[in-house]
Fold this sequence. Notes:
The protein is of the alpha/beta class. The protein is built from 13 helices and ten strands.
Amino acid sequence: xxxxxxxxxxxxxxxxxxxxxxxxxxxLRSDDSPLYYLDPSLAPSALATPADAPHVQPHARExxxxxxxxxxxxxxxxxxHPMKPARLTLTNRLVLGYGLHQRMSCxxxxxxxxxxxxxxxxxxxxxxxxxxxxxxxxxxxxxxxNFADDCPVFDGMYDFCRSYAGASxxxxxxxxxGQTDIAINWSGGLHHAxxxxxxxxxxxxxxxxxxxxxxxxxxxxxxxxxxxHHGDGVQEAFYNxxxxxTVSFHKFGNDFFPCTGALSEIGTSLGKHFSLNVPLQxxxxxxxxxxxxxxxxxxxxxxxRPESIVLQCGxxxxxxxxxxxxxLSIAAHGECVRFVKSFGLPLLVLGGGGYTIRxxxxxxxxxxxxxxxxxxxxxxxxxxxxxxxxxxxxLHEALQAGRVENQNTKASLxxxxxxxxxxxxxxxxxxxxxxxxxxxxxxxxxxxxxxxRDSERAEEKAS
Length: 463
């Protein structure tokens, strides 16, 4: 388990010294942020248990399912494109190197079918997606469906989309069947894709498809997004619905992509007040981010009472990300994951952005350890890709070398917190749901049950 000594005074000397000397033990942070520890035994005794932990030890270990589509890390957007699916291969190798696969059920899921993609996406968009190749002559369809520099056509693009979408759907189905407590798909989380267009490196919105699958069985689903970019595609899909509460923590302003996610975007019609945005400025640090995250998410869960949670863990909110401008450490990013996990609700964990691939792999491997309640050493395991992590070969790098000035004041963050809590007051408790359609799986089961009863009655009459 990851232990957080939060909002506590800095331990004198030992943590900073250990970090500076390159030791793999001790305090992971030596700046003004809260202190995060890999091993509870390394923390000061008074701070050894997180304040929000209801129990010292869980009664039973969570069942974790891990999805890694075959070959998903071998696709290539283009030489100069910042999205590198190879980061998924690096992540998977670290997960295996740490032995975390021994604490999970691991799956190579089937790809999503065209019919499944069309649950959300328009059929003509899916048709174009399935047919276009890098040699297809330019036409009006490229403009219509927003295929350009950000969303290029590359070899195997349709298969890539079906792979990561299929993994998210498989995880959602495992959760609704009650066969797992946590499902992980680091290849998913592509939150910008719209109903009929590509956007922000995203072609198929696997998150929306997974939430739609969860909604077949769960009355309410909470979506949480900690990518540095606003989760606009997911918000837009459920903007009129009171069955999905979307919560996005993101950079906002100065024309930062996708230029949405203001506090004023709260939903419409039945979905009014069911879209919650937390707009942040450059340079937010560990203490401010984690404190605000917990202050917003806990009342969201207690007010909305979701039956499952989808957590998008975009790693571009880390410090030193190629496209990011926050100052978060891997430990703080992982603390948000641990906090969501602590509520014990069915949880689907997805990837997302992240463009400094060595740090993306570090982050998601660490969060896999958090989700499996494992303590892993700071020294990275040997893998065929160890050169990517040179020269330190450590899990927790100092990501503040190019620190961005923190433009988030305490007053501005408090204002955001108060406005978020004020909006949650309008929920008036969890909305009720009238189930108008029996899920197909349940329909078949009920029919079999009816036929069995009829057969028994017929036998009784005959006797």
